[in-house]
């Protein structure tokens, strides 16, 4: 489904990704963990060119883009295969919950309003927000706003959903409701790449865990291999600090 080959990225002199190779299979839930500043979010954002890699190839469902000089048309084609759930939700504040979910369907997919509305209502029901469809984001809790973010991502019918620390901006009591929805989507077979600090989520839901540090993948494997029996000292140190 996704194949990244030798992705590098620097911000000025700061070399943030140092040649990343990564594959994600269809239906797989891949969770990326690692210390702050190790390049996890930058890598995730490279997958749909929200960040342009300096070098390397990104391939999603057979569609490939190479290096940093990709055309606008190619980038849009790549983005149509992916959806992103952001740490800070990124909802339109002046649109209702329902309109937030419908927007992408009408603008990007040119769907008729009635059809977009019906699909959006279904998806909002799926994330438990049927009662809130006519509210504005400011009237919702953080957890509810993030569930709108997830419904919006699902509406795009993407090949993969990219989650960028989806629970880190939430109050602790709201983390569970968002993780529960993510778990449900994972069980339904959605391909997911998740950057998170929620190690319990990784342990329970990930098919594969990638541990990144200093712009490289230090190790990867099943949750049991990486989180319970890490091979590398760097991983052991990271996990020790979490308990
Ligand atoms: P992580 O997600 O693992 O915490 P990030 O990918 O967010 O790591 O950041 C990796 C490094 O890249 C950090 O040193 C960060 O300061 C830097 N960085 C990220 N985005 C930018 C940007 N837009 N401009 C400059 N530096 C950035």
TrEMBL record:
<dbReference type="GO" id="GO:0015424">
    <property type="term" value="F:ABC-type amino acid transporter activity"/>
</dbReference>
<dbReference type="GO" id="GO:0005886">
    <property type="term" value="C:plasma membrane"/>
</dbReference>
<dbReference type="GO" id="GO:0016887">
    <property type="term" value="F:ATP hydrolysis activity"/>
</dbReference>
<dbReference type="InterPro" id="IPR050086">
    <property type="entry name" value="MetN_ABC_transporter-like"/>
</dbReference>
<feature type="domain" description="ABC transporter">
    <location>
        <begin position="2"/>
        <end position="239"/>
    </location>
</feature>
<dbReference type="InterPro" id="IPR017871">
    <property type="entry name" value="ABC_transporter-like_CS"/>
</dbReference>
<keyword id="KW-0472">Membrane</keyword>
<dbReference type="Pfam" id="PF00005">
    <property type="entry name" value="ABC_tran"/>
</dbReference>
<keyword id="KW-0547">Nucleotide-binding</keyword>
<keyword id="KW-0067">ATP-binding</keyword>
<dbReference type="GO" id="GO:0005524">
    <property type="term" value="F:ATP binding"/>
</dbReference>
<keyword id="KW-1003">Cell membrane</keyword>
<dbReference type="InterPro" id="IPR030679">
    <property type="entry name" value="ABC_ATPase_HisP-typ"/>
</dbReference>
<dbReference type="InterPro" id="IPR003439">
    <property type="entry name" value="ABC_transporter-like_ATP-bd"/>
</dbReference>
<protein>
    <submittedName>
        <fullName>Amino acid ABC transporter ATP-binding protein</fullName>
    </submittedName>
</protein>
<dbReference type="InterPro" id="IPR027417">
    <property type="entry name" value="P-loop_NTPase"/>
</dbReference>
<keyword id="KW-0813">Transport</keyword>
<dbReference type="InterPro" id="IPR003593">
    <property type="entry name" value="AAA+_ATPase"/>
</dbReference>
């Amino acid at each position: 489904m996704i194949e990244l080959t030798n992705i590098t990225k620097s911000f000025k002199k700061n070399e943030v990704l140092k040649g990343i190779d990564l594959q994600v299979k269809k239906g797989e839930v891949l969770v990326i963990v690692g210390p702050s500043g190790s390049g996890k979010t930058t890598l995730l954002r490279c997958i749909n060119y929200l960040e342009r890699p300096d070098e390397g190839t990104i391939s999603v469902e057979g569609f490939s883009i190479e290096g940093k000089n990709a055309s606008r048309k190619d980038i849009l084609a790549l983005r149509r295969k992916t959806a992103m759930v952001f740490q800070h939700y990124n909802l339109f504040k002046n649109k209702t919950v329902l309109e937030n979910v419908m927007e992408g369907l009408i603008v990007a997919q040119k769907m008729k309003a009635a059809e977009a509305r019906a699909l959006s209502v279904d998806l909002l029901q799926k994330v438990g927000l049927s009662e809130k469809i006519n509210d504005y984001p400011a009237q919702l809790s953080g957890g509810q706003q993030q569930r709108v973010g997830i419904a919006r991502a699902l509406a795009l019918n993407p090949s993969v959903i990219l989650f960028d620390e989806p629970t880190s901006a939430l109050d602790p009591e709201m983390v569970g409701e968002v993780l529960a929805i993510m778990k449900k989507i994972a069980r339904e077979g959605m391909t997911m790449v998740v950057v998170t600090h929620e190690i319990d989520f990784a342990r329970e839901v990930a098919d594969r865990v990638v541990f990144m540090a200093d712009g490289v993948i230090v190790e990867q494997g099943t949750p049991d291999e990486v989180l319970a029996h890490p091979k590398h000292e760097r991983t052991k140190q990271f996990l020790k600090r979490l308990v």
